[in-house]
UniProtKB/TrEMBL annotation:
Domain of life: Bacteria
Organism from which the protein derives: Ruixingdingia sedimenti
Protein name: Probable succinyl-diaminopimelate desuccinylase
Pathway(s) per entry: Amino-acid biosynthesis; L-lysine biosynthesis via DAP pathway; LL-2,6-diaminopimelate from (S)-tetrahydrodipicolinate (succinylase route): step 3/3
UniProt similarity note: Belongs to the peptidase M20A family.
Cofactors that this protein relies on: Zn(2+); Co(2+)
The keyword Cell division is assigned to this record: no
Enzyme Commission number: 3.5.1.18
Gene3D superfamilies membership: 3.30.70.360, Zn peptidases
Reactions accelerated catalytically: N-succinyl-(2S,6S)-2,6-diaminopimelate + H2O = (2S,6S)-2,6-diaminopimelate + succinate
Length: 425
């Protein structure tokens, strides 16, 4: 009966769920540069304070990206129960990526059409944030005598690494295992899937060196672009085929991400791009520099030093074989793979709730890219963490992004029944 009451409470809040999601989408929290972060935190603070939560607004002063123009604001809300017990924390990021081209709807309109709410961030992940709030409010209404605590956070900059959000909060101790025991991140990974973790990532910048000369006499110079071309050819000939031989036992989705991957994120060489409005021709020069950014995603079976050695070994081979080849390589970013065990308490509990609500067993998956679980695990030292939330992962960052109302309602039921199991009366 108690579980049925919780689900009834969620059904009664369907209109509130829709309105909340629309309101969140209509706050254009674009990252970069980090717009309207304080506005969305103020909005959520008012909402959660009215529901009995104690609210803190936390600025990640000094974190990457934080400035007086674009301060990195985070919200943390906590509702204490009637007695001691575990703390369940729902963490959502409030930032969204650029709009991009190809939209047929207002990207910040929050339009409701055919059971879908459209807008940038609808799927990734304001729909999940709204669902977690409705879940908590419904659970509290149905089980006012619960023991333990519920926390809800809305954090900055997940789309650019999370350093002004969850990483900073973890450094301050907000995810310490003695104060938080269970974490659910409502990323859009389908309402019947539990995401246990993610692959690793290594970003690096490689610069090839050359010597400038007049373009009519290139033999007096040394083209950094040609050296980079040799590197790219070597990557195509040897590194890409090598990566296809590396496969993981992690249940990564989609299937293509169950092997190691490499993306050339960008390439820049020679003269800078002309300023907008310039109509002249470029100067005739041999390029004395060329840079690429590598985005290497690796598996839990791989070691980061081996991943880096594959690239540096290739560079050293070119330096030995190619006259004039010189380079610099700089680490930009690295994250170790992480995966929570299937028998962890939060995993077992969410899986049981999925079966109750949806009538089928949960699917266990791993994300091809990273999300804020990396900081909760590595900095916070909290292993009992998963991603679970509404939405279709493939829609993230796409034009006409949307989230289904039924999916949000079902996910809210799963989250609320999870609270009922982990925070008993």
């Amino acid at each position: 009966m108690s579980d049925a009451l919780i689900q009834t409470q969620i059904a009664a809040r369907r209109d509130s769920l829709i309105a909340l999601t629309q309101d969140l989408i209509r706050i254009p929290t674009l990252n970069p540069p980090g717009r309207h972060y304080r506005e969305i935190c103020d909005y959520l603070a008012a909402r959660l304070a009215a529901s009995g939560f104690t609210v803190q607004l936390l600025r990640a002063t000094g974190a990457p990206g934080d400035s007086e123009t674009y301060p990195r604001w985070n919200l943390l809300a906590r509702r204490e129960g009637a007695g001691p017990g575990d703390c369940v924390h729902f963490n959502s990021h409030h930032d969204v990526v650029e709009v991009g081209h190809g939209w047929t709807r207002d990207p910040f309109g929050g339009e409701l059409d055919g059971g879908r709410i459209y807008g940038r961030g609808a799927c990734d992940m304001k729909g999940g944030l709204a669902a977690s709030i409705i879940a908590a409010e419904s659970f509290i209404a149905a089980r006012p005598g619960f023991r333990g605590a519920i926390e809800i956070s809305a954090t900055a900059d997940e789309e650019s690494g999370g350093f002004g959000g969850v990483a900073w909060m973890a450094q301050q101790g907000y995810f310490a295992p003695e104060r938080v025991q269970h974490v659910i991140i409502p990323e859009p990974l389908h309402k019947d899937r539990i995401c246990l973790g993610h692959r690793g990532v290594w970003w690096a910048e490689i610069e090839t060196k050359g010597r400038i000369a007049h373009g009519s006499m290139p033999f007096l110079g040394d083209s950094a672009i040609r050296h980079m071309g040799a590197l790219l050819a070597e990557i195509e000939a040897t590194l890409y085929p090598h990566l296809t031989t590396k496969h993981t036992e992690m249940p990564v989705i989609p299937e293509g991400a169950r092997q190691s991957t490499l993306n050339i994120n960008s390439i820049h060489g020679g003269e800078p791009e002309p300023e907008p409005g310039y109509t002249g021709l470029p100067a005739p020069c041999v390029a004395d520099r060329c840079r690429i950014i590598l985005d290497r995603r690796f598996l839990i079976e791989e070691r980061i030093d081996e991943v880096k050695a594959e690239v540096t070994g290739l560079l050293e081979r070119l330096r030995a074989e190619r006259p004039g080849f010189a380079y610099e390589i700089r680490d930009l970013f690295e994250v170790q793979p992480t995966m929570t065990e299937k028998d962890a308490p939060v995993v077992r509990t969410v899986a049981a709730a999925i079966e109750k609500v949806l009538g089928r067993q949960a699917e266990y998956v791993v994300s091809p890219g990273t999300y804020d679980q990396k900081h909760i695990d590595r900095i916070g030292k909290l292993k009992n963490c998963i991603a679970y939330g509404p939405g279709v992962l493939d829609l993230a960052h796409q034009p006409d992004e949307w989230v289904g109302v039924d999916d949000m309602a079902d996910s809210a039921k799963v989250m609320a029944l999870t609270l009922a199991e982990l925070l008993p009366e």
